[in-house]
UniProtKB/TrEMBL annotation, chain A:
Protein name: Putative phosphoesterase
Pfam families per the UniProt record, alphabetical: Metallophos_2
An example molecular function term from Gene Ontology annotations: phosphatase activity
Any one of the GO CC terms: cytoplasm
Domain Calcineurin-like phosphoesterase: 1-208
Family membership: Belongs to the metallophosphoesterase superfamily. YfcE family.
Gene3D superfamilies linked: 3.60.21.10
Record-linked InterPro entries: Ap4A_hydrolase, Calcineurin-like_PHP_lpxH, Metallo-depent_PP-like, Pesterase_MJ0912
């Protein structure tokens, strides 16, 4: 089965639409959503409604820190993220907020684990910045492949049975076999706010039979997404950074 | 780990096991057959039982990832893989014959035989590098030859694929590979520079032409590290008749700093194919190693081998293409030749490691016997070489990046295409057909080259003059 995995959509409708369309065109049969549906972008209602529909049709979804912040003021965030979350809170209705509040922190599906930040302590929202961070996550789970997002920069780590690590900045559209006999941590780039220098929306495809992962990029209408952010009075930097991919 | 299922007569995933043909330290090789596959096959099985070197598993994982994505005549075709959950294996095409290792008793080889042999290996390496793979274990026992002549590179257990995880990156504290052939930067942990393979091929060329390994056989890290500062004895010190061009090629491959070696395997293959065009430098005539002062500076000056930025194999190859410009020095108009030069200059400006081959076709008569001398008695071939060099002078290219070739042929387009193919040319620059009655009758060389070449072709026209519009032609 071909899974399409999306992370950090952040209320960016144009980016999410482009990713869904491309993933379907590439034959994706099941969707996984790794959290941070809202925050930063100007279309949280549409994104959450779409996520709810996909979940109703069998998609897997987990909770991100921005999703949690919608329902809790205890989450600490930077100033711009805080402004965006407060704005988002006013846009979502009770059903949408409840959907976000009830999302699980992680979902195990066969020998795969889906989590927003990393597996060692998902509720602490640690970033995977290095092989050491990746090792910490991999040691804490028996899963063959862990999928996470949160840092908005794609990376692929593996750990051998003797705990030796490898790391790779994945190349777009090149499929990589995730060999059995070692564990893998697939860190996804962001759908709605890429920060790896490439402004196009990021997601991955994973073939559960051949265990091949492919990092994909979808170009999208950045202009519209950015102008929606500006029109809604959100911080301008949130709009400007979209075209820079950082 | 499940018990190995492999024995003669057993069937794994449809492959019937035949006999064990090789039992090495890392893996065993078995002949296998599969209904529907009529190529001779080998199944490679890693040694994974208790007490075996963990390197065997990691190397095998690398082969399992890399082999299925390689293609072409210079690699063994891969038919299937099985993973460690059941029985790890790869099934590859069985190349008939033996590896180059069998030739060691014949060393040193005649210079020209070694030149042709290594040119074929360089061509194979170029093809591998184009597929984003660095072999990292180039040595006689990794090299075979097809009956059709192409070199085949085998054993990818230590290789690096630029688009795949490098599982060996953290696996070993010491560099893993074959000591006599290992490039100095490998000792510093660099695994992403394709020029490491050119160093190993240089070791092989040195060994095959002198009978001596340039860095000995030392296996200890201490012995290997010497190559970070100590250059080998120039081959001419071992064999007085060693051709200067060959020493130039060998010592360029063996440069300690990768940046001083050939930028690509294609460019090395080019020099080996055209020994008379090798630009000789001080390397060619040397009889002694670097003076001790230089060696000490290298050894104790921390700045000598700086950690380098991560290199991208594809980007490095793309920045060092072989360009060929086809010129008509006799009938080409000055405007067209100037336009060709301007275009060539612009392309070269963005590619500091590109090399340029200037071609001219000396057209032979179909029927009459050709005379080398023209009506005035001067040698046509030499005249044209001179004209090509003259055309290239304003480009101010370093001699090592420029070569000139006069091809003698009945069909100029076919000659240019053949040259491009044989020399792995990446980009042909050619003038458009000019409007003359004779050319119309003969058909257009540039059109044929543009449509049949396997590389990029740029067709150049002189700038259009005002009032020219009516006379211009469509595609040349």
């Amino acid at each position: 089965m071909l899974l399409a995995v999306f992370s950090d959509i952040h209320g960016n409708r144009q980016a999410f639409e482009a990713c869904l369309k491309l993933a379907r065109a590439k034959g994706a049969e099941r969707f996984v959503l790794l959290g941070d549906f809202v925050g930063y972008g100007a279309d949280p209602e549409w994104v959450v409604d779409t996520a709810m529909e996909l979940v109703a049709q069998g998609a897997i979804a987990v909770r991100g820190n921005h999703d949690q912040a919608v329902n809790s003021s205890a989450e600490t965030m930077n100033a711009e993220a805080q402004i965006a979350i407060e704005w988002t809170r006013g846009r979502l209705d009770a059903a949408q907020r409840r959907f976000l509040a009830e999302l699980p922190m992680q979902v195990a599906d066969g020998d795969r684990l889906f989590v927003h930040s990393e597996a060692s302590s998902p509720q602490r929202w640690h970033y995977v910045r290095s092989t050491a961070d990746a090792a910490k996550s991999l040691i804490s789970t028996p899963a063959h492949v862990t999928f996470c997002g949160h840092i908005h920069r794609p990376a692929l780590y593996s750990m051998s049975v003797t705990a030796k690590m490898s790391s790779l900045v994945p190349k777009t559209d090149v499929s990589v076999p995730l060999l059995r006999g070692r564990q893998w941590l697939a860190v996804l780039g962001s759908v709605g706010q890429p920060r790896d220098g490439d402004p196009s929306a990021a997601f991955v495809l994973f073939d559960t039979v051949s265990c091949q992962i492919t990092y994909c990029r979808a170009p999208y209408d950045i202009e519209t997404a950015a102008s929606r952010i500006r029109q809604n009075g959100l911080p301008h930097w949130l709009a400007d950074r979209l075209s820079q991919g950082r | 780990m499940p018990k190995p299922l492999v024995r003669s007569g057993a069937v794994i995933d449809g492959y019937t096991i035949g006999e064990c043909v090789h039992a090495g330290g890392m893996a065993t090789l078995w002949t296998v057959t599969h209904p529907g596959i009529d190529v001779p096959l080998l199944m490679k099985i890693p040694r994974v039982s208790e007490g075996e070197d963990p390197a065997a598993i990691v190397s095998f994982e690398m082969e399992m990832m890399i082999l299925p994505r390689l293609a072409g005549p210079h690699v063994p075709a891969c038919f299937g893989t099985g993973d460690f959950a059941h029985q790890a294996y790869v099934v590859i095409e069985r190349i008939s014959g033996t590896t180059l290792y069998k030739r060691l008793s014949d060393l040193p080889l005649p210079y020209d035989e070694a030149r042709q042999l290594v040119a074929k290996i360089a061509t194979a390496l170029a093809d591998l590098h184009r597929q984003n793979v660095i072999h990292h274990d180039i040595k006689p026992s990794s090299i075979m030859f097809r009956e059709s002549g192409e070199a085949v590179l085998i054993d990818y257990g230590l290789s690096h694929h630029n688009h795949l995880p490098d599982l060996l990156q953290e696996e070993f504290r010491l560099p893993y590979g074959t000591a006599p052939y290992m490039a100095p930067e490998r000792l510093l942990g660099v695994r992403d520079d394709p020029r490491s393979d050119l160093f190993s091929l240089g070791v092989l060329l040195y060994f095959f032409t002198t009978g001596e390994r340039p860095f000995g056989e030392g296996e200890t890290l201490r012995a290997m590290r010497r190559r970070l500062w100590r250059d080998p004895h120039p081959p001419r010190a071992l064999r007085a008749d060693y051709p200067p061009w060959l020493q130039e090629v060998v010592l360029r491959c063996l440069e300690i700093e990768p940046v001083w070696r050939y930028p690509t395997a294609s460019q090395l293959a080019f020099d080996l194919a055209h020994p008379d065009q090798v630009k000789l430098t001080a390397r060619a005539e040397r009889l002694n190693r670097d003076p001790l002062g230089v060696v000490w500076r290298r050894r104790f000056n921390q700045g000598v081998m700086q950690p380098r930025a991560k290199s991208d194999v594809a980007a490095q190859i793309a920045s060092s293409p072989i360009l060929a410009v086809a010129l008509d020095t006799v009938e080409g108009t000055p405007e067209l030749n100037e336009a060709l030069r301007v275009t060539t200059e612009r392309i070269l400006a963005t590619l500091p490691s590109a090399r340029l081959a200037c071609l001219n076709v000396l057209k032979l008569n179909r029927i009459a016997i050709d005379r080398t001398l023209d009506e005035q008695g001067s040698n046509k071939h030499i005249d044209r070489l001179v004209a090509l060099r003259h055309w290239a002078t304003p480009l101010k290219l370093d001699e090592s990046r420029l070569s000139v070739h006069v091809l003698e042929a009945i069909d100029p387009a076919a000659a240019i295409l053949e040259f491009a193919e044989a020399n792995q040319v990446d980009h042909v620059i050619i003038g458009a057909r000019q409007s003359s009655f004779r050319r119309t009758l003969l058909g257009s060389v540039s059109a044929k080259v543009a449509s049949e070449a396997t590389c990029t072709v740029t067709v150049v026209r002189p700038p259009r003059m005002a009032g020219d519009a009516g006379g211009s032609e469509m595609a040349g």
